[in-house]
TrEMBL record:
Residues 89-248 form the GST C-terminal domain. CDD domains: GST_C_family (cd00299), GST_N_family (cd00570). InterPro entries: DUF7962, Glutathione-S-Trfase_C-like, Glutathione-S-Trfase_C_sf, Glutathione_S-Trfase_N, Thioredoxin-like_sf. This is GST C-terminal domain-containing protein. Pfam families: DUF7962, GST_N_3.
């Protein structure tokens, strides 16, 4: 079996993909990339037997991981010979996890995504609006973006204000007072970094280095650290979809097979057991794209299913429990697994 390799399926402008790219760079983990289009279809992903439509997708060996909230912890467990980025004390871990929840579940990124500049070239492509409608599960238009922009700006201001007046207020360089950026910095900075870098997204009279000097200095420091890390590591190798799939199919498993928690309330309610056919999908965006496979393992943090690639090879798809729905699947004709 070939040695395990890290492959990141992403496209450069994806804000979520940046989280993974930054982590890999700052940690110094070698990886290959399979660059994807910013809209569906993505035949390279379908080649893996994966229906999940969100980016990024991470593979480590023969295991495939959805959602950066699972991908980053999995990477943190990998390459023990390299210094980790994660928190070490209970208090620091709490800050790290709360920042993740604040930016993702608390809606900071969701509001930032409503501030896309209205003159972006992609808005001239009608396919983009159709794709975003499928992604969000509701109609998407320029008119709608114009209407929700004022409210989104108010929400984003709360995010900038929070960091300016609390975690950065004492002049620290990094969130956990570390010597270098940590995972907590990634969890906190990514959405603000993204939206502040979109020309025309934020009005200069309301958002600027003069208005939020500590936040903008933090963003600048972080970008400099990432740029330096990327220079040290060199560019990742780019693989075609077929090349990436071949590497994955020939690899060994990244993780040992685990068990299904038989006492989990969902397992009990759905009558699940190891080997049951199940369907999983996100609960927010991209939920119309279900992945169906055999249940391999399930615990409080993660669900793993076995799926087949287009070549009939077995791979395992991992998803976090948080933000994903799992149901028993008895076949579409029976109306089962209504996610």
């Amino acid at each position: 079996m070939a040695a395990k390799e890290v492959i990141l399926y992403h496209y450069p402008h994806s804000p979520y993909a940046r989280r993974a790219v930054w982590y890999l760079a700052l940690r110094g983990i070698p990886y290959s990339q399979c660059v994807q289009p910013n809209m569906m279809p993505r035949p390279d992903v379908a080649r893996l037997g994966v229906s999940y439509r969100r980016i990024p997708i991470l593979s480590i060996g023969r295991d495939i991981y959805a959602d950066t909230r699972l991908q980053l912890p999995k990477l943190e467990e990998s390459y023990p010979e390299l210094p980790r980025l994660g928190a070490t004390t209970p208090e620091q871990k709490a800050i790290e996890r709360l920042l993740s929840a604040f930016i993702i579940d608390g809606g900071i990124f969701r509001e930032a995504a409503k501030l896309l500049p209205l003159d972006l070239p992609l808005f001239k492509d009608p396919n983009y609006f159709k794709d975003r409608g499928d992604f969000s599960g509701k109609p998407f238009s320029l008119e709608a973006l114009k209407k929700i922009r004022p409210d989104a700006l108010a929400e984003i201001a709360l995010g900038f204000e929070l960091f300016e007046t609390t975690l950065l207020a004492d002049g620290r360089e990094w969130i956990l007072k570390t010597e270098k950026p940590s995972l907590a910095d990634i969890e906190g900075v990514w959405a603000l970094h993204w939206v502040s870098g979109l020309k025309g997204a934020l009005p200069a009279d309301r958002f600027s280095p003069e208005k939020y000097p500590l936040v903008y200095a933090w963003i600048k420091r972080f970008q400099e650290a990432v740029t330096a890390a990327k220079a040290r590591n060199g560019k990742p190798k780019s693989l075609s979809g077929e090349e990436a799939a071949s590497v994955i199919e020939k690899s060994s498993w990244n993780e040992k097979e685990k068990t299904v928690d038989e006492g989990d309330p969902l397992v009990v309610a759905e009558g699940l057991k190891k080997g049951s056919m199940v369907a999983i999908c996100p609960t927010d965006t991209g939920r119309s794209h279900k992945d169906i496979g055999k249940l391999v393992s399930l615990d409080k943090d993660e669900v793993v299913i076995e799926i087949k690639t287009a070549e009939g090879e077995t791979v395992r798809l991992h998803a976090p429990r948080h933000g994903f729905k799992l149901r028993k699947f008895d076949g579409e004709k029976k109306g089962a697994a209504k996610l």
